[in-house]
Amino acid sequence: MSADIIPTIKIERAKDSKISEVDFSNLPFGQVLTDHMFVCDFKDGEWKEPQIKPYQNISLDPSSKIFHYGQSVFEGMKAYKDDDDNILLFRPLENQKRINISSKRLAIPEFPEAYFMEGLKALLKVDSDWIPTKEGSSLYIRPFVFATGNGFHASPSDEYKFIIACSPSGSYFSGKVKVLIEQKYSRSANGGVGFAKAGGNYGGQFYPTQLANEKGYQQVIWTDDTTHEYIEEAGAMNIFIRIGDTLITAPTSDRILDGITRKSIIDIAKDEGIQVEVRRITVNELIEASNSGTLKEMFGAGTAAVISPIAGFGYRDQDYDLPELEDAYAARLKKRITDIQYNRAEDLFGWRLVVE
Ligand SMILES: Cc1ncc(COP(=O)(O)O)c(C=O)c1O
Q1: What are the tens digits of pLDDT across the range 274-295?
Q2: Pocket lining: 187 vs ligand 1, CB cutoff 6 Å
Q3: Which atom belonging to ligand 1 lies closest to the Cα atom of 262?
Q4: At the N or C end, where does the chain have fewer CB atoms within 10 A?
């Protein structure tokens, strides 16, 4: 099927809905799955007919390359409903582009924009009742693609499956987190896959994060892999640091994911008149700012948590606390971005997409 043509999406509806079993007032994050999923297979050198099917298990040969060589990338995005029941997406084309950037790095064939966008919109319409309306809740959307070709030869698969699955979700973290600045392990390296949303990047984070958890920290702050002196990301989020009234975030690179929340926050902060610096920042600068009292805030930014304020950080067996601020940038910027996402504020930057 040609990549430029708007695809016809075959829809097979679920016979029974699970929706009545779900407590929408008490949703965990990413645990409850909707009634349907979008599926498209890559075979014989092309993406085949895209389909919406009842949510179901998939069956794979044990020699499928996904199990052995980790050829798998994913995205994370959200759909919202406003007071008039419109279905809204936030900068979805950024996710569409990024999954292809990730795919390319993992030698996975790119997925056509029209398939992604039309498939996503059709799925959201079929599962529209699953989009939560409670404040802070949304429908978390997980597009992903993985190698389904068989055989133990360590080479790219010739077959793939692209799926979009959705999960009505409450907020990701509750409250502020304590983080540990990592001095030994790295999540990514120059020339590596850190900029891609490759499944293995996350698997590799779990063990160092477990060690941090055992020491009483909820998250790890990743530093650069060569010197461990530069601050790069906060768990699976981009990081922002406020020193004085300036907001600083690390520049994206081979090692850092080009976060959509990050770039949106940079634009909103500038619009708020906040001085933003996109530059490398060392752990030493952070410690000095903490010691001199100019370190005012740190927060992670990403689709799942939107903005996750940091209460304090640990570094070389010492803990540093951050002050409690009444006029925190974190709260102000979170309100601005979520007001745009939920259609409560003017869409100054043209980021909202109404699904029609
Ligand atoms: C490693 C990493 N950094 C940053 C982000 C934030 O990106 P976004 O704002 O596009 O969700 C994510 C989440 O997707 C991530 O996995």
Answers
A1: 999 999 999 999 999 999 999 9
A2: no
A3: 9
A4: C
Q: How far is the CA of 141 from the centre of ligand 1 (A)?
A: 14
Tokens representing residue 74 in the block:
């994913």
| Residue 250: both structure tokens together | 């690390």
- Among protein residues, the one with the nearest Cα to ligand 1's atom 1 is 236
Residue 93: per-residue pLDDT: 98
Q: What pLDDT digit, counting tens, does each position of 109-155 carry?
A: 999 999 999 999 999 999 999 999 988 899 999 999 999 999 999 99
Chain CA centroid to CA 108, Å? 20
3-state SS assignment for residue 260:
helix
pTM comes to 0.97
Angle at 36 between CA 31 and CA 37, to 5 degrees: 85
Q: How far apart are CA 112 and CA 101, in angstroms?
A: 12
Going 4 to 254 to 156 to 202, the CA torsion angle's sign is negative
Q: Which residues contact 335 (CB under 8 A, 6 or more apart)?
A: none
> What is the position in ligand 1's atom list of the atom closest to the CA of 261?
9
